Amino acid sequence: MATSKLCDPVNLHRWAGLKGITLVGTGDFTHGGWRRELRENLVEAEPGFYRLRKEHQPEIPDQPDARFVISGEISSIYKKNGRTRKVHNLILLPSLEAADALSAKLESLGMNLHSDGRPILGLDSYRLFQMTLDVCPEAIFIPAHIWTPHFSVFGSNSGFDLIEECYEDLTPCISALETGLSSDPAMNWQWSALDRFRLISNSDAHNPQNLGREATVFEAELSYQGLRKALQGDATDRLAGTVEFFPEEGKYHYDGHRNCGISFTPEQTAQHNGLCPVCGKKVTVGVFNRITALADRPLGFQPEGAQPFQRLIPLKEIIGDVYNVGVNTRKVDTVYWALLREFGPELVILRDTDIERLTQFDSAIGMAISRLRNGQVSIIPGYDGQYGVISVISEEERKQFRIK
Ligand SMILES: [Zn+2]
Ligand SMILES: [Zn+2]
C-alpha cells in the first residue's frame, strides 16, 4: 500500500547503488509475502547483512554493491493514560529468521500482518518493544520520525510530552531516534531531553528513486553488530552524522490546513488561537511549533559532542528548479543521467564532486550545487501534508543562463 511497484529487492539494490548508499533497509519485514521475496532474492553477506544473489545482480560497473538490513515499521494505535496514541516505531533485526519469529509472535496475538507492509496494530508501543526484545534481544528499536503530528512519539496530535511516558522502563534500551524529514538535528538540539540519543535519518522512500533523500553516515564495521554498536554510541564503530532534507521542505514543518490553503508560523497559529480562519477548526500543528513547545533552549544551541549533519536537496529537484520544469520531465531525466554517468553516485555529486568540474559540464547546475552546499536556498515551508517548495536559482539568473 502507498508504495511504488518498483520497490522490489532488485530495484532497491540498483537505486541504492545509483545514490551511493552502502546499506538499505528492506522495510516491511512483518509481511510474509515480502519475506518470501527477500529470501528468493537475498543471501547473507556479512553477519546480519544481506546482499542480492549473484543471478539478480545488475550489470552496472563501479557501483557499490549495497547491503540490506532487515527492517520494518509498525504503526501502533492505542489508548494510554486516557488519550488515543498513534506511534510509529522502526525495528531492525539481525536475520530473516528473527523476522519470522517476531511476526509469528504478533500473529499469535491475532494481529493482522497481511493487509499492509506497515501494519496498523492495536498494540501499545511499550508492549511491542517488550515482545521484540523477548523474541530477539539484539533487535534495534527506534521511535520513527518522532515529530510527525499524527503518528509519532512526540507528535502534536496523538503523541507524548515525555519519552518515558511511552516506553517506561524500556526507555534506557532506546539509543537512537529518527528525526524525520520535517526536522533536523539542529531543531532537536533545542530540547535537552534528547541529548543522550543518537539522531538518525532515513529516506522514508516509498519509491526506490527516493532512497537517500535522508541518510545516516557510519564509520563502522559492515555488519549488524557494527551498526548496532554505532547506534549505541560506540567510539570505534561510530555514527558520523546525517544527511538531511531542509526541514522546511518536509510535509509538516509549519502549521496549517492544506485544504483551506492556510500555512501558519507558530506565532500566527497563536494569534489565531490555534484555529483555521477558513473552516474554523483546529489547524494541524507542525513539527517546528511542536519542538518549540517542548524545547528548553533557543534554536542555534549546540550541545557538546553533537554529531555533524549536512542539508541536501535531491538532484532531480535541483535540475527541475534550474531548468524551470517538473521533476518528472524528460529534460530532468536527460540531465540527471548525464550527470550520473559523468560523476558517479548522486550523493557524491551533491556532497563531494569538484564544483569546477560540475560547472564545466553544466554551468547552471554547478552554480546550483555550490549554492546548495553553502545553504543559499530559498524555501516556502511545507505544512499539513504539503511538501515545502525549495529554490536555488532566481528568474533573473535563469535568463542569464539562457534558460527559458
Ligand atoms: Zn511512519
Ligand atoms: Zn481549515
Low-confidence runs (pLDDT<50, min 5 residues)?
none
- Average residue-wise pLDDT: 94
The major beta sheet can be summarized as: 5 strands, mixed
Structural class: alpha/beta
Q: Number of DSSP strands? A: 16
The proportion of residues in beta strands is: 15-25%
Going by CATH, the architecture of the largest domain would be: Alpha-Beta Barrel
Radius of gyration: 21 Å
Shape: globular
Examine the coordinates and then state which fold CATH places here, giving the name of the CATH topology of the largest domain. TIM Barrel
CATH class of the largest domain: Alpha Beta
Give the count of structural domains. 2
Q: Kindly, what is the distance between the CA atoms of the first and last residues, rounded to a whole number of angstroms? A: 39 Å
Number of helices: 15
Distinct small molecules: zinc ion
* Estimated helix fraction: 25-40%
Give an overview in words.
This protein is of the alpha/beta class. The protein has two domains: 9-249, TIM Barrel (Alpha-Beta Barrel), CATH 3.20.20; 314-400, no CATH class. The protein contains 15 helices and 16 strands. The chain has helices spanning 9-19, 32-41, 96-108, 125-135, 163-167, 185-188, 224-231, 266-271, 287-294, 315-323, 330-343, 346-351, 355-361, 363-373, 395-400, and strands at residues 23-25, 42-44, 50-52, 67-80, 83-93, 120-121, 140-143, 176-178, 198-200, 215-219, 238-244, 255-257, 262-264, 309-311, 378-380, 389-391. Strand 4 and strand 5 form a beta hairpin. It starts with 8 loop residues before the first helix and ends with a helix. Bound molecules: zinc ion (ZN) (2 copies). The site of one zinc ion has 7 residues, from loops.
